[in-house]
Amino acid sequence: MDNTKSHWEQVYATKGSNEVSWYQTQPQKSLELIQGTGITHDAQIIDIGGGASTLVDFLLQADFQNVTVLDISAASLHNAQQRLGNAAKRVTWLETDITQATLATDFYDVWHDRAVFHFLTNPADRLAYVQLAKQALKPNGHIIVATFAPDGPTRCSGLDVVRYDPEHLHGEFGEPFELVASYHELHQTPFGTEQSFIYCYCKKRS
């Protein structure tokens, strides 16, 4: 964990949140999928690796009242809190490694992750992630995970990644999760290049 944390602290110490390649001014597909689940405004939502994302801003604007942002990097969380100002008090902030985190059981209605899971190149880390998602999501809870697609980058922010198609990404999560839908996104980076992503939307079986 220490090496991983040091890496990401260094990234966010040297780059603004809007200077990482996966940054989106408006995370449209994530918002569409979260709002499309039909959850109420008091539902519990957790954004994994959300320190550099504006998703929390838009969820608050949409009047979602229980948003948690989890990130391994204290610097990224601080950047998000500074950006939100007083609105940051409406958010729960968790600084932890998702592969070693402790979360409440059957607590979250929506688990969202855009661009964390593909950094888990160690099968044991992926298993820990999946087990935690299974434990923390409510029965019939929703999970939205976006990773680089098969034609996406092989490395990002100086690290190797694992690329997925929807079948293989769902395969990592397995039988406890039902694949509802999948989508492709061609993301325009802040540097004018393109990154190919896939999104998988699953529900945790009751």
Describe this structure in words.
This protein has 206 residues and is of the alpha/beta class. The chain has a single domain, classed as Vaccinia Virus protein VP39 (Rossmann fold), CATH 3.40.50.150. Helices cover 30% and strands 30% of the residues. It has 6 helices and 9 strands. The chain has a 7-stranded mixed β-sheet, sandwiched between helices. The mean pLDDT is 92.
Q: Biggest β-sheet, characterized?
A: 7 strands, mixed
What is the overall pLDDT average?
Answer: 92
Domain module tally = 1
pLDDT < 50 runs, ≥5 residues: none
Strand percentage: 25-35%
Distance between the termini: 32 Å
Query: How many DSSP H or I helices?
Result: 6
Full CATH superfamily name: Vaccinia Virus protein VP39
**Can you give the helix content as a percent range?**
25-40%
Structural category: alpha/beta
- Dominant shape: globular
Name the strands of the widest sheet in spatial order. Answer: 3-2-1-4-5-9-8
Q: Could you tell me the number of beta strands?
A: 9
CATH fold-level assignment: Rossmann fold
The name of the CATH architecture is 3-Layer(aba) Sandwich
Given this structure, which CATH class is correct?
Alpha Beta
Estimated radius of gyration? 16 Å
Q: Secondary-structure element sequence? A: HHEHEHEEHEEEHEE
Tags for this model:
7-stranded mixed beta sheet; 30% helix; two-stranded antiparallel sheet; 206 residues; alpha/beta; globular; Rossmann fold
